[in-house]
Every structure is written in C-alpha cells, then in structure tokens.
C-alpha cells in the first residue's frame, strides 16, 4: 500500500522543489494516514509539507481536534495552518455548504503558503459511497485522482491530488494501528441524517454500489478561449466538456443541471442554430460551431458585480478576469448599459468583437461614474477562461505544468486545448 501511494505522489509531483506540498488533514484516519505517507515521500524527494486544517465548528470538540492536528504536524516537522468556518449553516444541504467552505479555505491557505497542489485523503470507499449517493439522486460529482480545486476564484491555478483512491479505509486504519498512530473518529460519519453516512451504512451492510462507467479522457480538440474570455467549441463537443465550458464562461462554480444540459445537447445534435442561456453563460450555436460568452441578463436578475480596485493588488472580477490597476479611485463593473459613454478608441475596439461578448466585458469607472473606459485600456487584464479550461479539461497532468500558470496569459493568442 505505502509504495502504491508514494508512486501516485511521484507521478504528479516535482522532486526537489522549494514550493511546499499542502496536505488537507482533518484528523480522521484517512487524512492522518495520508499525512504520514506523504511525509515519507517528501523526506525522500526533498519537499516540505504544509498541513492545512479547516475547523467547521460543527462539533463541540473541533477545537481539540485542531490542536491534535497541529501537534501532529509539529512532530512531523511540517508547517501548520488552520482556518475556521463560522457559517451561516443552512437548514438543508449542510454537507455541501461545509464542503464548499472547506475547499475555499483550503485554497486560500494553500496559495498563501505558495503550494500548487493540495493532497486530500479520499479513498476507494469514498468513490463507492459517491456512486451509491448518485444512484439515490445526489448531484455529487465524480471523485478523480487529479482535478482542479472546485473553489473559484480562490482555487485559481490550484490542483487537488488524491493518492489514496486505490486504497480501502480499513486497510489504512490497519496500517495506522501497526504504526501506532492515533486518529479521530468523527461521530458525524455515523449520523444518518447525511447521505454520506447512509451510503456508508448501506455498503457496510452488503449493498453494492453501481458499477462506474470507464473514466476516459475528454476530447478537447478545437476548444479555445481568447483574451476576451470568448470560448469556442465544435458542435460535437462532449457533454462534460460543454458543461464545464458553460461554467467557465459564466464565471461561476455550479455546473448546469443534467436535464437542462441534455436538452441543450439534443438541440445541438439536431443541427439547430439557436441562442440559449445556462449556468450564467450564453451559448450561441451556429453551423460553424459553438460560442460561449457571459450572459449579461444575469446582471439584471442578480445585480451587477462591481468591486473597488486597490492599486498594485490583483483582483478577480466576475470570476472571469484578473485585473490590476496602478492608479487609485477605480472600480470595475460590466460594460452592459455603459457602452454609449465609451470614447472613440474603445468603441473601435468593441466593433471588432462579437456583439454578444461586449456587455460582459469589464470597464473601469470612478465613484462619480466618470468614464467608463474598457479595462484593457487602463489596467493589466488577464482573461481566466483559457487557464481554467486547461485545468478542468485535463490538459495539465503534472505539477511542473503549474509552475508556468502565470505565463498562461493569452496575450492576444487563443490557445487550442
């Protein structure tokens, strides 16, 4: 087992690199085993570890658990970082809310310490439980060994590695026992109010999880994104790639519902030319292919994303653009409703762009709404679509590729994925 886990780490991670490898550690058996196995690999390959712990505040003993993880990290010579989720806790969907909060805080801590990859302790049992939950109607996604952080934009350019996916939970605990290493048993794991606990109980009672479909690589030929955030895809793009493209074009995190995506796919497969909105994006289906841009109508329904910019500090706007200004007093807002007040130069730039993309572009305004000016005219702007697509569609296979993530700026050239 230990050699399999170390091989999984070696297949994705750099040796002798100054950036730490982050390990998400709750204190449970899976993550504790992962930490000790990762430390063995790190010592042998010249890497340091950063232990990341999120206190959800859902158990009265959670502060004591945090102390135990901190002490464990100290004994292993690893840096320790922690964050707490203060809620608010929803009346329904608590596990999903806690999971989203955990990923956001893990991403914040990982990027703060300079890590490119977070290790998590998901096991073969987690995969089986996830399939059982999906069969019961859960929208929980498929767990893969290597995937981008689901937190956005906090997890920008950050990958998750799950080197325990081939291991069984019981085997990990047997290994810990043999090594005389303690772990925490979270009582929530047996709380049948939660789908994960019901899945665990059902599988332990002998029920079978559905057999998974073979997880094959996506076809990504012809998918591109340009410096304005416009995504283009062939009409025969696979549904999973199309779904992720819609999420990226909309700047959000939540994938479209399966039934709506299926109806969209049927219209595309039938050769229909049409325009439709989904997941915060606008899809334009034409004979030559698909174009995905931001759905500006979302601004009227949900409010405009307007943020203040601090000189010299990069900010991510609308989940789609990273901007940095040198002068104080600027805010960034969508062009929608402001195009008539642009100057002649900016109007000329806009004239060369598809009409559908224009309302969702970032413009800079002052507090008194003077301006506006296209953000590209007065700020350093990076469209995040190409980078995010590369991560999410499996084009980045090793930590070495993440070292140049800041060089993925499109600079006017659309990368073909």
Strand-residue fraction?
15-25%
Counted by DSSP, the helix tally is 14
* Range of helix content: 25-40%
Unreliable runs:
405-417
Question: Total strand count, please?
Answer: 18
| Major sheet description | 6 strands, mixed
End-to-end C-alpha gap: 35 Å
Radius of gyration: 23 Å
Q: What is the topology, as strand order, of the major beta sheet?
A: 3-2-1-4-6-5
| Class inferred from helices and paired strands | alpha+beta
User: Can you give the mean pLDDT?
Assistant: 88
Name the shape in a single word: globular
What are its keywords?
417 residues, 6-stranded mixed beta sheet, disordered C terminus, alpha+beta, 5-stranded antiparallel beta sheet, 14 helices, single chain
Please give the structural blueprint.
Blueprint: H1 2-12, E1 21-24, H2 29-45, E2 49-55, H3 62-76, E3 79-84, H4 94-113, E4 117-119, H5 124-135, E5 146-148, E6 159-161, H6 169-178, H7 195-204, E7 224-225, E8 231-233, H8 239-250, H9 258-269, E9 274-278, E10 281-286, E11 289-294, H10 297-302, E12 307-308, E13 315-317, E14 321-324, E15 331-334, H11 344-351, E16 362-365, E17 373-374, H12 375-378, E18 380-383, H13 385-392, H14 399-402
Parallel strand pairs: 1-2, 1-4, 2-3, 4-6
Antiparallel strand pairs: 5-6, 7-8, 8-11, 9-10, 10-11, 12-15, 13-14, 14-18, 15-16, 16-17
């Amino acid at each position: 087992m230990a050699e399999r886990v170390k091989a999984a780490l070696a297949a994705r991670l750099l040796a002798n690199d100054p950036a730490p490898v982050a390990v998400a550690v709750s204190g449970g058996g899976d993550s504790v085993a992962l930490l000790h196995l990762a430390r063995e690999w790190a010592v042998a390959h010249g890497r340091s570890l950063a232990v990341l712990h999120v206190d959800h505040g859902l158990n009265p003993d959670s502060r004591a658990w945090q102390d135990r993880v901190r002490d464990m990290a100290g004994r292993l010579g690893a840096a320790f970082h922690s964050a707490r989720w203060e809620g608010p806790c929803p009346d329904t969907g608590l596990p999903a809310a806690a999971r989203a909060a955990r990923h956001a805080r893990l991403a914040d801590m990982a990027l703060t310490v300079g890590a490119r990859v977070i290790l998590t302790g998901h096991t073969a049992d987690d995969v089986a439980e996830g399939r059982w939950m999906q069969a019961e109607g859960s929208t929980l996604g498929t767990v893969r060994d290597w995937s981008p952080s689901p937190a956005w934009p906090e997890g920008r350019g950050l990958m998750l590695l799950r080197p325990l996916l081939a291991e069984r939970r019981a085997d990990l605990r047997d290994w810990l026992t043999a090594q005389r290493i303690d772990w925490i048993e979270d009582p929530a794991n047996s709380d049948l109010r939660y789908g994960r606990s019901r899945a665990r109980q059902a599988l332990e009672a002998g029920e079978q999880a559905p057999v998974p479909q073979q997880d094959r690589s996506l076809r990504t030929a012809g998918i591109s994104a340009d410096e304005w955030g416009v995504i283009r895809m062939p009409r025969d793009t696979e549904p999973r790639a199309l779904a992720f493209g819609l999420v990226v074009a909309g700047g959000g995190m939540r994938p479209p519902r399966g039934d709506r995506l299926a109806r969209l796919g049927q219209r595309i497969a039938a050769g229909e030319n049409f325009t439709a909105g989904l997941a915060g994006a606008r899809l334009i289906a034409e004979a030559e292919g698909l174009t995905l841009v931001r759905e500006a109508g979302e601004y009227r329904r949900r409010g405009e994303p307007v943020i203040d910019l601090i000189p010299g500090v990069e900010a991510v706007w609308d989940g789609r653009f990273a901007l940095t200004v040198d002068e104080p007093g600027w805010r960034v807002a969508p062009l929608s409703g402001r195009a008539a007040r642009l100057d002649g130069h900016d109007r000329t730039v806009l004239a060369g762009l598809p009409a559908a993309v224009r309302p969702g572009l970032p413009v800079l305004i002052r507090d008194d709404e003077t301006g506006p000016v296209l953000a590209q005219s007065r700020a350093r702007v990076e469209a995040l679509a190409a980078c995010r697509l590369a991560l999410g569609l499996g084009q980045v296979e090793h930590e070495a590729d993440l070292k140049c993530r800041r060089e993925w700026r499109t600079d006017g050239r659309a990368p073909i994925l």
